[in-house]
């Protein structure tokens, strides 16, 4: 299937040209994201769109995934790491190139990609959970394109951390960038891991630095962090009961993470109800752009 996908993030705007039965990356192009002006960001985005058109023609289905909340009615975005708040990326692009392209949340794009010939293939319901600098979620049911009534569905990173989990590990209340306190992402993201390490040791230790830390200390930090993440997985199961939870983002690369989480989740599960499968993303860092491209194919078919 031929399509183009663009992952518009706080560091880069990455365009990927996909082809083949598994919608695999054939070519890719990355440029820095302009962060000081919405118009400059749109200039860079349109340039990436034109690059994709040069690869696949002007009729190439192209989709864009972005962080943050997108209002379903107006297309207006709300994000903390790109200059899109108060603007509609979709409207701005259409004004420049003359045609509409789908713009969807990056976590929803990730989940859609992994549900379609990805780690969630064959499951009726798939939850995508990104453990990066922050935490985000997407959900796909019966292979259908993700849908958000008001843009907030499965924003699991901003659900409050259960008191029992914080008490179990004597963790403090961390203030979130969203303005609320004790949001899950402040405990279970890559940043959250460093928050926990600072509380336990007085030093900010990233998950990627555990190989240079005393083995006993590394294991202690991992046990706390995986227990917290398992609380989130339990919350997801109780609310959505997915057949599969697919993990992405930098923190998902912690060695043996799925094995650790399956053990931790076993301690939290309710009664004898089977836990969902926990898997790592099959399409890695291309999954967001791939999901946007697949969304563009559906968008083109619906017109």
TrEMBL record:
The keyword Transmembrane does not apply. It is an enzyme of class 2 (transferase). It catalyses: N-acetyl-D-glucosamine + ATP = N-acetyl-D-glucosamine 6-phosphate + ADP + H(+). Its EC number is 2.7.1.59. Pfam families: ROK. The keyword Transferase applies. Signal peptide: none annotated. Keywords: ATP-binding, Carbohydrate metabolism, Kinase, Metal-binding, Nucleotide-binding, Transferase, Zinc. InterPro entries: ATPase_NBD, ROK. This is N-acetylglucosamine kinase.
């Amino acid at each position: 299937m031929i399509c183009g996908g663009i992952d518009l993030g706080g560091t880069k705007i990455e365009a990927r040209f996909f082809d083949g039965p598994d919608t695999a990356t054939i070519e890719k192009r990355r440029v820095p994201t302009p962060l000081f002006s919405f118009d400059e960001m749109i200039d860079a985005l349109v340039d990436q769109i034109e690059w994709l058109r040069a690869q696949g023609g002007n009729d190439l289905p192209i989709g864009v995934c972005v962080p943050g909340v997108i209002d379903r009615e107006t297309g207006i975005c709300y994000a903390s790491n790109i200059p899109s708040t108060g603007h509609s990326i979709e409207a701005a692009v259409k004004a420049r190139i003359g045609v509409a392209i789908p713009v969807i949340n990056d976590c929803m794009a990730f989940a859609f990609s992994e549900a379609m010939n990805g780690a969630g293939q064959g499951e009726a319901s798939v939850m995508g959970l990104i453990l990066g600098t922050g935490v985000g979620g997407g959900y796909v049911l019966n292979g259908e394109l993700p849908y958000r009534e008001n843009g907030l569905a499965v924003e699991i990173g901003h659900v409050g951390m259960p008191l029992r989990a914080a008490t179990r590990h004597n963790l403090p209340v961390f203030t979130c960038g969203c303005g609320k306190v004790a949001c899950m992402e402040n405990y279970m993201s890559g940043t959250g891991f460093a928050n926990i390490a600072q509380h336990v040791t007085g030093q900010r230790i990233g998950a990627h630095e555990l190989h240079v830390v005393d083995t006993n200390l590394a294991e202690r930090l991992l046990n706390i962090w995986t227990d917290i993440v398992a609380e989130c997985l339990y919350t997801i199961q109780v609310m959505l009961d997915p057949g599969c939870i697919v993990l992405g983002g930098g923190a998902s690369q912690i060695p043996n993470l799925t094995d650790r989480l399956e053990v931790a989740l076993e301690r939290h599960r309710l009664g004898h109800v089977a836990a969902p499968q926990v898997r790592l993303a099959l399409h890695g860092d291309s999954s967001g752009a791939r999901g946007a491209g697949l969304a563009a194919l559906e968008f083109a078919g619906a017109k």
